[in-house]
Sequence to fold (262 residues):
Amino acid sequence: MDEWISLNEVSFVRSRRTILDGIDWNISPGDNWVVLGANGSGKTTLLRLLAGYLWPTQGRITVLGERFGQTDLRELRMKIGWVGSFLEAQIPSGQAPLDLIVSGKFASIGIFQTPAEDDYRKARELAKRLGCERIIDLPYGVLSQGEKQRLLIARAMIHRPQLLILDEPCAGLDLVSREQLLRTLQALGEAPDAPCMVLVTHHLQEIMPAFTHVFLLKDGRRLASGTKEEILRSELLSETFGIAVEVVAENGRYWTKVSFTG
Ligand SMILES: Nc1ncnc2c1ncn2[C@@H]1O[C@H](COP(=O)(O)OP(=O)(O)OP(=O)(O)O)[C@@H](O)[C@H]1O
Fold:
């Protein structure tokens, strides 16, 4: 397949502001990407375009071999899992965790179609795989941030997505919950049914070995993209964030030291 996931010259303009400008990006099967950029650089907008929740002002988007404009986006969205605050904010606090996981099958918030008998069995299995089996009798609203994030990943996984979009999945997690969630992502990346993962994060520590490529966004433009080894370099990260950033790599993980001058 020539183009599996690709953006060609994609721009997105709202309120006369160019939020994304001339974005080119190619994702090959088997690659997992991280998107890095300062607040407001356009990361979430980019993910929403990929998932078909927004339409580009200009340019061409192909996702999972389907060209936008020539495909049924509702069908395509069923193959894409989404984990992030944009979704989390819409979930009613009284929602039961197993219903939440099953709702992923229909790419809806709440269940408006009759689930198959097998769906709840699958939901229980996923809850177990993601370490949520102890909280399945509690309403969503009382769960901790870490528990909510795991449920959202289970929800995204129920329809075996080919593309899993993770918009800051570790936001609000304590050190232990964050590391557990990152290990879950690593295990997902190593599984035989692994989806392609695209992760937005602000922290290099969250880039697990399963992530192979990095896309740097600055002010809505692609600053650089390529393999982790090519892109996670002090000069490029300093340029991305407009501040002196030193990238330190150890045992397949990364972190940063930031220097303020003046
Ligand atoms: N509908 C809109 N109208 C006008 N501006 C918008 C609209 N949607 C997003 N923006 C602006 O576009 C810019 C990019 O937003 P986006 O949420 O994609 O950034 P981000 O890189 O994900 O930021 P953060 O790291 O803070 O989450 C922001 O400055 C935002 O205010």
About this structure: The first strand starts at residue 5 and ends at 14. The pocket of adenosine-5'-triphosphate is lined by residues 14-15, 17, 19, 37, 39-45 (CB under 6 Å).
